[in-house]
């Protein structure tokens, strides 16, 4: 077997956790547990103020009634040392589907892919792939997700991407499952040039710089769209040979083996 070039490790440093959720339909108590096990007493704070209500038992805090006034950030302390924190939030009851919230795309079979959260009503979003650490956005709601799949082997297991999104003291959790090959969409290819032959133009096209290498293994098919000089009509060709008398052309690409989505068209290139 070929070793995957996509091995990686992440250091889990993101706080706070969201593992304690209150359900509007469940009147039962909620138990918060301090992640650390220090020697000595543990005290709890809510939004920075010491908790007066609730049942403290060692490193746990039990809240009997959960409603808006007690929703927010809880932190456990050992003296003046903060140990960990947890957001207590209500479960978001919106039945919206994950595909309308989260869109993902891979520009190649290399070691990461990109996702975007599409709903601006949420103030905080983070993603997780399998058992990896939570992944926070690069900028806005855009995410770069590393993976360890080998680009040389056929996928047998779906990727499982979990999303946690916060709005108005409630958290929405969703899971998206897919194969990497199903989200592959190459960047636009490069039109290197064209050469006149007897009755045709031969167009030279190169894969985008972001596409997986070697190109002899990761093959792309190209489609050329052109405009005829004589009548202005548009034609398309899956061959590199096109009619000679054209005014301009553009190209797009896709992976023919998984029938991926087509790339965006290149800009029109004038033919002189």
UniProtKB/TrEMBL annotation:
<feature type="domain" description="Ig-like">
    <location>
        <begin position="1"/>
        <end position="76"/>
    </location>
</feature>
<keyword id="KW-0732">Signal</keyword>
<keyword id="KW-0393">Immunoglobulin domain</keyword>
<keyword id="KW-0325">Glycoprotein</keyword>
<dbReference type="InterPro" id="IPR013783">
    <property type="entry name" value="Ig-like_fold"/>
</dbReference>
<dbReference type="Pfam" id="PF10420">
    <property type="entry name" value="IL12p40_C"/>
</dbReference>
<dbReference type="InterPro" id="IPR036116">
    <property type="entry name" value="FN3_sf"/>
</dbReference>
<dbReference type="InterPro" id="IPR050676">
    <property type="entry name" value="IL-12"/>
</dbReference>
<dbReference type="InterPro" id="IPR019482">
    <property type="entry name" value="IL-12_beta_cen-dom"/>
</dbReference>
<dbReference type="InterPro" id="IPR036179">
    <property type="entry name" value="Ig-like_dom_sf"/>
</dbReference>
<dbReference type="InterPro" id="IPR007110">
    <property type="entry name" value="Ig-like_dom"/>
</dbReference>
<keyword id="KW-1015">Disulfide bond</keyword>
<protein>
    <submittedName>
        <fullName>Interleukin-12 subunit beta-like</fullName>
    </submittedName>
</protein>
